[in-house]
Amino acid sequence: MSSSLSLAVRDSSTMLRRNLLHARRYPSLTLNLLLTPVMLLLLFVYIFGDTMSAGIGGGDRSDYIAYLVPGLLLMTIGSTTIGTAVSVSNDMTEGIIARFRTMAIHRPSVLVGHVVGSVLQCVMSVVLVGAVAVAIGFRSTDATALEWLAAFGLLVLFATALTWIAVGMGLISPNAEAASNNAMPLIFLPLISSAFVPIASMPGWFQPIAEYQPFTPAIETLRGLLLGTEIGHNGWLAIAWCVGLTVLGYFWSTSKFNGDAK
After folding, report:
1. How many CB atoms sit inside 10 A of residue 199's CB?
2. Which of 177, 188, 183 is nearest to 164 (CA)?
3. Which has more confidence, 257 or 60?
4. Sign, CA torsion 142/231/115/195
5. By CB neighbour count within 10 A (0-12 exposed, 13-18 middle, 19+ buried), where does 190 fall?
6. Using the 8-state DSSP alphabet, how is residue 139 labeled?
7. Which of 141, 150, 23, 129 is closest to 74 using CA atoms?
8. Secondary structure tally for the chain: helices H, strands E
9. Can you tell me whether residue 10 is helix, strand or coil?
10. pLDDT tens across 57-104, in order?
């Protein structure tokens, strides 16, 4: 039992190093995906900031920065995991997975390496976008150390959930372009959530679309932790979405990965 566990840990660590080295050698994909939330942040703050602030009942642009940043942080996670789908698809189509299967390694370690590597990249991307947000005026002075820790835990949990979904998307894609297209909902969903405007300001027929999806409760929870707004039932909903998507993505990915080996 202990030997199989040590083998799994050793092989997963090896695959993690491989994926981190791959990301370091080919940073263009990660940078391109990271530019999307950064450009949206700058666009909405400096072009639409005053108007949007008035729309949410704020006094000036700084109110809209505070409202916008939690949603952009979660959107950063969604955009970063698209790179995971592309990377998994490349591994499947370029033959490296077939080579791994001929070696005496712990088979799930291939996917675990992708997932852990992607979560680490998500955390680094969130830190970079957060730094840009702080540079242009975002402040969270009322959040306690426990609330900051809870916010970080939510971001990691959300990144894990979306990464497993992205791995599944990469496994079912015939090439990198298809993987990128299949994973586009991970960027599109935040655009129709409460990230940019309150749900109450949306047309009545559209509000259920924005409300009943994973990004909105996660955004409202993160907003409450960082800014002190009301969280209500969103905290439990965000955790439920994260756990559900993680379980779904894990079983989907592993069944597809093991099925392809037959």
Report:
1. 15
2. 183
3. 257
4. negative
5. buried
6. -
7. 129
8. 12, 0
9. helix
10. 666 777 888 899 999 999 999 988 988 898 888 878 877 766 766 665
| Token pair 């729309």 in the structure block, residue | 55
The answer to whether the beta carbons of residues 51 and 35 sit under 8 Å apart is no
Answer whether 195's CB lies under 8 Å from 219's CB. Answer: yes
CB 210 within 8 A of CB 194: yes
Whole-number Å distance between alpha carbons of 105 and 261: 14
| Cβ atoms 49, 61 nearer than 8 A | yes
Distance CA 235, CA 216 (A): 11
State pLDDT tens for residues 118-173: 898 899 889 999 999 999 989 887 889 999 999 999 999 999 999 999 999 998 99
Mean pLDDT (the chain, rounded):
84
pTM for the model stands at 0.88
Contact 249, 161 (CB under 8 A): yes
